[in-house]
Amino acid sequence: MADPDRLQQVVINILTNAIKHNTSANPMVRVEGRLSGGEYVIEITDNGPGIPNHLRPFIFEKFQRGAAQSSTGGIGLGLAISKEIMKRLGGRLVLDEDDGPGTRFQITLNAKAIKSASQSQAHSIS
Questions:
Q1: Given the DSSP bridges, would you call strands 39-46 and 92-95 parallel, antiparallel or unpaired?
Q2: Bridge pairing between strands 103-110 and 29-36
Q3: What is the pLDDT of residues 5-37, one digit of tens each?
């Protein structure tokens, strides 16, 4: 079952990265959730500089900080931890393959796991 606190942690981490690494004068982040083929998909897209092709294979590895090594802070664990959380929840966290400006991450979970988690949370509140 999906743990709503851990899912929230992943979404907040991706949103924080999108804002922190955005060098645009008008940073924008779009979050879209939808059901697709029995899965719930959350897409987080920003209008920042994007992640260069040469860094993409390493983006989910521990201590990888990308091109903004000194200017944005952090130690490069957020995406590695988020990927592991999604794996443990039975879901996925992937980086879109588009190498243009902006970045899009996709978080995917089985819709039944989300429904079961929300039902058990509702029962525990009663």
A1: unpaired
A2: unpaired
A3: 999 999 999 999 888 888 777 778 889 988 888
CA angle 114, 29, 79 (to 5 degrees): 60
Name the burial class of residue 53, with classes exposed (0-12), middle (13-18) and buried (19+) by CB atoms within 10 angstroms of its CB. exposed
Residue type, 45: T
Q: Give strand pairing partners of 92.
A: 108
Please state the pTM of the whole predicted model.
Answer: 0.78
Residue 18's contacts (CB-CB under 8 Å, 6 or more residues apart) are: 27, 29, 44, 46, 48, 103
Structure tokens at 116: 């079961």
71 token code pair: 């200017």
* Closest of 115, 110, 105 to residue 89, by C-alpha: 110
